[in-house]
Amino acid sequence: MQAKINEATRQPRKKKRQRSMLPFLLLICSVGGGAVIAFQYFQQKPSEEILVVRENVPVAAQPLPAASLSDGSQQQYNLTSHSPSSQNGSIAIDQGEQSGSISQSELPASQLAVQPEEQQAGTIDQPEAPGSSHQEPSESRAAIEAFYSHLDQQPYVRNFHFDSASNVYFSQLIQKMLDTPPVVSGETNDLFTILQNTAHFFRVVGRQNILAMKAIISHEHQSYEKILSDFYSISKQPDYLRESFSIDLKEDALYDYAGFFLTTMGGRLYLFRRDSSLRMIVSYYSILVVEEAVQSGRNRHGIDIRPAIDNLIGEIENSGNQLQLKEHYLDNLYDLKEKYL
């Protein structure tokens, strides 16, 4: 027995078989090669997408078709469903309506290029307190007519080929909007009403008129603030407004638009897609219109303007330095805040 043990201990141990490293090297090379190919593919992919997008951009030199007041009824952007339950609840809406904004590539070059000489020549003198209760209606009328005459002389306005002078054309456009107010109460009852409100201005006035108004706001940013105050001042005398500009002002329609901008999802989304200055100005006059409705017992939607007053005061104080009438707005808003404490 001892001899067998001694013989077993004298036998050399078998060496372990060394594994080849070749399979591991091949695996590493294949993974590395795949990573390099994927990296090169994704580096080339964005440039191809950019080329496709650029091919779809319209040529800026092409003239726009003539703007018409009937664009809202004949355009292809309108909602095709007449009720939430019709056509299995499907709603067709153009992407332009859903976004509510027009890219700068859709505007002709004459609208995008702001000429400093024309801007300075068309600047309208600013009174100390426009839109105040002490301003005479005749002064507001003269300022608005001067603004319309200024528009008729601008090349970017002529490019839209209006079928009448600016004072007639935009008076008819304003009347059309007053005759078709948005939905204020019950907006969130169904998706169809929300989409209607979101695309309200595209449905009512049409795409070309939206482009025209955006171009005017862009070019006349130094004077449209005063013009809005003049319109608000003259709106307090509906008979004079009808006589001067053939606009039949309906108080309920003006109140509906104010409530639309202050309380509805569609109205708030529309304002937040606009320039901050325009958003604050529209919100300010909307508050004044609703406050007048409260005083005269016409606040049929039960709108509470106190949150809107607080929000607008904070927004103007923090980011309203570009407003020409900043102090005028804040004085009136603080008066209203104290009134509703």
Automatic annotation (TrEMBL):
Residues 68-140 are annotated as: Disordered. Residues 70-90 have a biased composition (Polar residues). The chain crosses the membrane at residues 21-42. Keywords: Membrane, Transmembrane, Transmembrane helix. Residues 95-106 have a biased composition (Low complexity). It comes from the Bacteria. This is Uncharacterized protein. It comes from Desulfopila aestuarii DSM 18488.
